[in-house]
C-alpha cells in the first residue's frame, strides 16, 4: 500500500497532522451519516447543512471527515457515494479532533485528526476503477474493533437490564430485513425506520433498529440467512413495550458486512448449515415478531365480525389487528406440562423431541449444543355474546404477563385462521359497553 500511495501522490492517513495543506487522500468509505441542517448563526433565518463519513486506507488507520455548505451542495455530494465505495479527497483541512466531545457522537478513530472540506476549497469524488488498489477494497470486510471484542446475542439477553443504555459491539447473522417505514413528526420533520432481525447460535431473533437513511440503505443490501454483520458501537436498550433487549444503530455505529474474521466465519458456517427452514413459518414469524404499537389498534370487533373478516381476507398475506371484548372461556393448564411449556430448538424454532433431546428438523443434539429454550405453547378459547374463537395462540410476553411467570418467546403458526393475543388485560365494563353499542354490536 505504501508504494501505491507514493505512485499516486496520495498522503496516507497515518501521516496526517494538523495544518497540513494541498493533500490528496484516498480511502474506502466505511461509515456515513445522513444530511442534517442547522440554523446559520451568521445568517439569521437561513440554514447550513452537513454530513460526515469515515474513510479508511489501511487496517489500522481511519478518520472522520465532515463537510459543511448550502443544502444543494451537501445533498448532491452526499448522494454521490455510498458506504463501500472508494473516494479521493483533495485539499481538505486537517484539524486536531476534540476527543471527548466529538467521539461522543462520531465513530471512535485511532487518529487524533479529522478532515474538514468545503465547496470552495476541497473536492470529493468517487474513484475510477484504475485508481483503486484491491487491498483498499478488502478493508470493507475488516471490523474497526478487535474481532473478539463483541457481545453475542445470548450474552446480551443473559445480561439483560445491566446493559440498558450501554454502547457495545455485536456480532450476529441477519435473519430478516424489514421494509423501511416513513413518517412525519409533530414538528413536520420527515423520518424513517427499519427493523432488522438478527440471530446467532443461542438466540433465534433479536431486533436491531435503524433510524437513518444510510444504515437503512446498507441493510437493504443484506441477504437474510446468508449475511453476518459486526456492528461496532450500537446502543443496547431494554424495550419496555416488547419486554426485551434491542439494539439501535446510532451516529457512532460502523457496521461491517460479512467480516473476514475467525469468529464471523464460525457464525457464517453455522447459518449455512441451518438454512433449511419453512418460508411460510418465516413469514408468519416476521408478522408475529413485528413491533406493533398497541395505541394504533382502534378497530373493535365481535367474534362474529372477526370470523367474517378472516374469510374475506383469506389468501392475503397481511394480518389485521383489532380489539375484542371477550372472556377466556378455555384455558387448559391442568393437562400435561409439556403441552403448556415445550422445549424448542434455537436454531430452527421447532419442538425438540422430549425423550431424545434431538431436534428432528435440523438434526441437532440439543443437550450437546445447548440450543434448547423453553417456550409457552398454549391455546385458549375467547368468547363473547356472538360466538367463540377456538384455539387462539397465547404465547410470549402476553402469556408471561397473563400467567405471572417467565418463559422465552416462541411463535409458530397453527392452521389457516390464526388468532394471536398481543395484549390481554381486564376490560372496563363501561368502556366495553360503549364501544360495542356504538357499533350496533349489542
UniProtKB/TrEMBL annotation:
Report the record's Gene Ontology biological process terms.
resolution of meiotic recombination intermediates
Q: What is the lineage of its organism?
A: Eukaryota, Metazoa, Chordata, Craniata, Vertebrata
Protein name from the UniProt record: Meiosis-specific with OB domain-containing protein
Q: Which UniProt keywords apply?
A: Chromosome, Cytoplasm, DNA-binding, Exonuclease, Hydrolase, Meiosis, Nuclease, Nucleus
Q: Which CDD domains does the record associate with it?
A: RPA1_DBD_B
Q: Report whether Nucleus shows up as a keyword of the record.
A: yes
Please provide, alphabetically and separated by semicolons, the GO molecular function terms listed in this UniProt record. Answer: single-stranded DNA 3'-5' DNA exonuclease activity; single-stranded DNA binding
* Primary location recorded for the protein, binned into one broad class: nucleus
Asked if the record carries the keyword Nucleus, the reply is yes
Species of the source: Myotis myotis (Greater mouse-eared bat)
The record's annotation in SUPFAM superfamilies points to: Nucleic acid-binding proteins
Q: Which InterPro entries match?
A: MEIOB, NA-bd_OB-fold, OB_MEIOB_N
Which family does the entry's similarity section mention? Belongs to the MEIOB family.
Superkingdom of the source?
Eukaryota
Subunit structure, interactors included: Component of a multiprotein complex with RPA2 and SPATA22. Interacts with SPATA22. Interacts with the complex BRME1:HSF2BP:BRCA2.
Its GO CC terms are:
chromosome; cytoplasm; nucleus
Protein purpose: Single-stranded DNA-binding protein required for homologous recombination in meiosis I. Required for double strand breaks (DSBs) repair and crossover formation and promotion of faithful and complete synapsis. Not required for the initial loading of recombinases but required to maintain a proper number of RAD51 and DMC1 foci after the zygotene stage. May act by ensuring the stabilization of recombinases, which is required for successful homology search and meiotic recombination. Displays Single-stranded DNA 3'-5' exonuclease activity in vitro.
One Pfam match: OB_MEIOB_N
**Which residue ranges does the record assign to the MEIOB-like N-terminal domain?**
8-145
Please state where this protein is localized.
Answer: Chromosome; Cytoplasm; Nucleus
Amino acid at each position: 500500500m505504501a508504494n501505491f500511495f507514493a505512485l499516486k501522490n496520495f498522503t496516507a492517513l497515518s501521516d496526517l497532522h494538523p495544518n497540513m495543506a494541498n493533500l490528496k487522500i484516498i480511502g474506502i468509505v466505511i461509515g456515513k451519516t445522513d444530511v442534517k441542517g442547522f440554523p446559520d448563526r451568521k445568517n439569521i433565518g437561513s440554514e447550513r447543512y452537513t454530513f460526515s463519513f469515515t474513510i479508511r486506507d489501511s487496517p489500522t488507520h481511519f478518520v472522520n471527515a465532515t463537510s459543511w455548505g448550502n443544502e444543494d451542495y451537501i445533498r448532491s455530494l452526499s448522494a454521490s457515494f455510498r458506504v463501500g465505495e472508494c473516494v479521493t479527497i483533495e485539499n481538505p483541512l486537517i484539524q486536531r479532533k476534540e476527543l471527548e466531545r466529538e467521539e461522543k457522537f462520531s465513530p471512535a478513530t485511532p487518529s487524533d485528526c479529522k478532515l474538514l472540506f468545503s465547496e470552495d476549497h476541497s473536492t470529493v469524488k468517487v474513484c475510477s476503477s484504475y485508481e483503486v488498489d484491491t487491498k483498499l477494497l478488502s478493508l470493507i470486510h475488516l471490523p474497526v474493533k478487535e474481532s473478539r471484542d463483541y457481545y453475542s446475542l445470548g450474552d446480551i439477553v443473559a445480561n439483560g437490564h445491566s446493559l440498558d443504555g450501554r454502547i457495545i459491539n455485536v456480532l450476529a447473522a441477519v435473519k430478516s430485513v424489514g421494509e423501511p417505514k416513513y413518517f412525519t413528526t409533530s414538528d413536520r420533520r420527515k423520518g424513517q425506520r427499519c427493523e432488522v432481525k438478527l440471530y446467532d447460535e443461542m438466540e433465534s431473533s433479536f431486533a436491531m433498529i435503524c433510524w437513518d437513511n444510510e444504515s437503512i440503505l446498507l441493510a437493504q443490501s443484506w441477504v437474510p440467512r446468508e449475511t453476518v454483520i459486526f456492528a461496532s458501537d450500537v446502543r443496547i436498550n431494554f424495550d419496555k413495550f416488547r419486554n426485551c433487549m434491542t439494539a439501535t444503530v446510532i451516529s457512532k455505529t460502523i457496521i461491517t458486512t460479512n467480516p473476514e474474521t475467525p469468529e464471523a466465519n464460525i457464525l457464517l458456517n453455522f447459518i449455512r448449515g441451518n438454512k433449511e427452514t419453512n418460508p411460510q413459518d418465516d413469514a408468519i414469524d416476521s408478522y408475529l415478531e413485528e413491533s406493533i404499537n398497541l395505541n394504533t389498534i382502534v378497530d373493535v370487533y365481535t367474534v362474529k365480525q372477526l370470523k367474517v373478516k378472516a374469510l374475506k381476507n383469506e389468501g392475503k398475506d397481511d394480518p389485521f389487528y383489532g380489539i375484542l371484548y371477550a372472556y377466556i372461556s378455555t384455558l387448559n393448564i391442568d393437562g400435561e406440562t409439556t403441552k403448556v411449556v415445550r422445549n424448542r430448538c434455537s436454531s430452527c424454532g421447532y419442538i425438540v423431541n422430549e425423550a431424545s433431546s434431538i431436534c428432528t428438523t435440523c438434526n441437532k443434539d440439543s443437550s450437546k449444543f445447548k440450543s434448547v429454550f423453553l417456550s409457552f405453547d398454549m391455546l385458549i378459547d375467547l368468547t363473547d355474546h356472538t360466538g367463540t374463537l377456538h384455539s387462539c395462540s397465547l404465547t410470549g410476553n402476553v402469556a408471561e404477563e397473563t400467567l405471572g411467570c417467565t418463559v422465552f418467546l416462541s411463535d409458530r403458526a397453527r392452521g389457516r385462521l390464526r388468532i394471536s393475543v398481543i395484549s390481554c388485560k381486564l376490560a372496563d365494563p363501561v368502556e366495553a359497553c360503549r364501544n360495542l353499542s356504538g357499533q350496533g354490536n349489542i
